[in-house]
Amino acid sequence: MSFVDGFVIAVPLANRQQFIDYAQMLDPVFLELGALRVLECWGVDVPDGKVTDFRRAVAGEKDEAVCFSWIEWPDKATRDAGMAIMHELMTTDARFDQTRHPLPFDGQRMIYGGFETVVKIEKYRGAEQ
Question: What is the rounded CA–CA span in Å between residue 55 and residue 72?
Fold first, then answer.
């Protein structure tokens, strides 16, 4: 079964296009390293919970959107190898230069983790556009 890296971040509403541009620049690197797909999702229906919720998990403010992203890999071994190369690229590849390409969000408030797929049900719909 596939392996998924998941991320939740708070992005200032004013940085929506910067977030999209940043993702379009860097997400293809994951595909080059073996990922099957990368999704970046902008929160539009993220309710406040009574005990906890996405917004509280990332200390999101009213002027921030909660974004949910994930990277699907064929397996954990491919992910581990790809992420090892990614960490190297972060110190050598100009696309990761924070002075030229600053993060459009506060990375210290990002939550993330790696997950083993245990159930996968899908309906093939062809290529998305």
Answer: 23
pTM of the shown model? 0.86
In whole angstroms, give the CA distance from residue 62 to residue 64: 6
Q: How many domains does the chain have?
A: 1
Residue type, 120: K
Eight-state DSSP code of residue 50: S
- 92 φ, ψ to 5°? -125, -20
All residues at 6 or more sequence positions from 24 whose CB lies less than 8 Å from its CB, including other chains? none
Q: How many CB atoms lie within 10 A of CB 11?
A: 24
CATH number of the domain that 21 lies in? 3.30.70.100
In tens, the pLDDT along 50-90 reads: 999 999 999 999 999 999 999 999 999 999 999 999 989 88
| Token pair for 10 | 């708070």
Residue 60 exposed, middle or buried by CB count within 10 Å (0-12, 13-18, 19+): buried
